């Protein structure tokens, strides 16, 4: 089992003729994902690695002959909101937004529309999600052979604000013989479609998932929201967290943003130290060293067995 | 992007929120004229992007235009917390009956703008929220639909405000919410929002911040309405020579992205690292094992050899840098061999031995076999994904400290 994706998941790529989108399409097809179309306005009739290109999402849906499950959106920031609206209002329920540097107001509009229409957004500023040996939606893990090296099937759900660290952590879980149920690069912006707490119910309902690993950063209240969720819901899943960017707590780093747009510390509550304290108060173990993650997950799983 | 008070005042005015007559002045003569125009006692306020100007002597009261000119002259020369003022704002000394607070911020959890209103204005809202929670009203607004006045009314009424004050404040708070959305603000705050003795409501002081990502589409406001120059950089600190050099190398070539920061870093171990999350993780790993980073950097995407070389050279040429550590989380887009060639080239061009200068090379992923072959040829210590980011950072620290101990 897995969350959000299965071997039958169909999706399109919006902005499919862009350089990075062409690579992403190749990688996903090689991994076994079902890409049923692509959209680039004005490019109808072309093909990208055998995938037909359309001018509109509606054309792609018509060509497919039924509802399409998802879309990977990789268009420039100024056009992203419109592309996401187009996907959602054509019945697509899972939208992965790869684009970065989208103003928060646009992201908030996409999320509000998604909520009204019963759709889910992953990202923006993310690499997508992967179910090892089943489906990959987005650039996550890179080319199929590299993704295969880093991602083996297993019991651990991974959620990360950093796309690269999703693969780094999953790879360490794979090397340790544990493996991954589903890994989600949730995005590095201040407002994102799906936070840790909003994805937890999916992992909770997934029989394959036995533990969760999250990668977190300073900035925002996403970790506080997760801590509250854990306290309110009697979750069966042990959570191991890693917090990067502790150096940003230094006085001279105040008001600066490192790594991702969302890391800027705007209030006393979003420093690394405060977040670690809040997570630990909710019973979530925060490891000091990145290489302690697999050991601790094993320990937690052993305790459960 | 942060705005000066005089700019925030203009934004408030553009949104149709009443303000008192005011003047932005850059000379004592202008201040005198502004005071004459206003008539009566005035207040002269330094225009700096930093707090604490009252304590520093950046705010002064004047009864006559002559006095206003004198104060303006002093304030224009006064540096506050390292900032020279852009000018002074001349305001009438308002006859205030009561001060209120009105603002809109992002609520990242609800993913909506949040209106905040208080009948205890003029002071820090966080303090009010903590000590007098019943005096703070809160209300979310939609991102998709027009913002109705009644939502502002509900937010204000929650603090117990009623009567004509409620009716006068309602359109003002609604307008703050609308300008917040229209101008892509991350903060739009009026504090204090004053009820004058004659019953009028005016914005006496405003604080605005715009999201950097939106600056490109807000040109009409920024360039036409506010006359802010394209190169008017509002960063919280001045960019160092290192930061500017790295930015120039990045701008010269569209392939890949490199960034460098050294504000607050003074160590001897240069960091050529990436990507976003990897850099945060590695900087902590170096520091937590006793290492002293000379800088922070990020390699992203697929940069050219020249770009990787340029970043490494800038890091190596920083004062006090003895060695560099080249490390990233597992890469799929960035090519290991290209970064390897770039950093080796940087060492050679500076007349340094790559094997001595590069303390560790830990970038696993795309094209790693090709990359490792090159590193081997130059005697550079490298490792793949079987060595964790923590351990790689530890090896770099041990090397540079070992050298220090031997010397």
| Spatial order of the strands forming the largest sheet of chain A | 3-4-2-1-5-6-7
Q: What's the end-to-end separation of chain A, in Å? A: 20 Å
State the name of the first-level CATH class of the largest domain in chain B: Alpha Beta
User: Roughly what percent helix of chain B?
Assistant: 25-40%
Q: Measured on Cα atoms, how large is the radius of gyration of chain B?
A: 27 Å
The proportion of residues in beta strands of chain B is 15-25%
**Backbone structural class of chain B:** alpha+beta
Radius of gyration of chain A: 19 Å
Judged by helices, strands and strand pairing, the structural class of chain A is alpha/beta
**Major sheet of chain B: size, sense and barrel closure?**
6 strands, antiparallel
Can you tell me about this structure?
- The complex is a heterodimer of chains A (305) and B (407).
- Chain A is an alpha/beta fold and 305 residues long.
- Chain A has a single domain (10-304), classed as Succinyl-CoA synthetase domains (Rossmann fold, 3-Layer(aba) Sandwich).
- Chain A contains 10 helices and 14 strands.
- Chain A has helices spanning 19-31, 57-64, 77-89, 104-117, 144-150, 163-175, 196-205, 222-232, 272-281, 293-304, and strands at residues 10-14, 34-39, 47-48, 51-54, 70-73, 94-97, 120-122, 128-131, 135-137, 153-160, 180-185, 211-216, 239-243, 285-287.
- In chain A, a hairpin with a 3-residue loop joins strand 8 and strand 9 (135-137).
- In chain A, helix 7 runs parallel beside helix 8 (222-232).
- The longest helix of chain A is centred in the middle third of the chain and has 14 residues, at 104-117.
- Chain A starts with 9 loop residues before the first strand and ends with a helix.
- With 407 residues, chain B is of the alpha+beta class.
- Chain B has 3 domains: 21-92, Dna Ligase, domain 1, CATH 3.30.1490.20; 96-225, 2-Layer Sandwich (D-amino Acid Aminotransferase, Chain A, domain 1), CATH 3.30.470.20; 241-406, 3-Layer(aba) Sandwich (Rossmann fold), CATH 3.40.50.261.
- Chain B contains 14 helices and 15 strands.
- In chain B, the strands form 4 sheets. In chain B, strands 5, 6, 7, 8, 9 and 10 form a 6-stranded antiparallel β-sheet that branches.
- In chain B, a hairpin with a 4-residue loop joins strand 5 and strand 6.
- Chain B starts with a helix and ends with a helix.
- At the A-B interface, helix 4, helix 5, helix 6 and helix 8 of A face helix 9 and helix 14 of B.
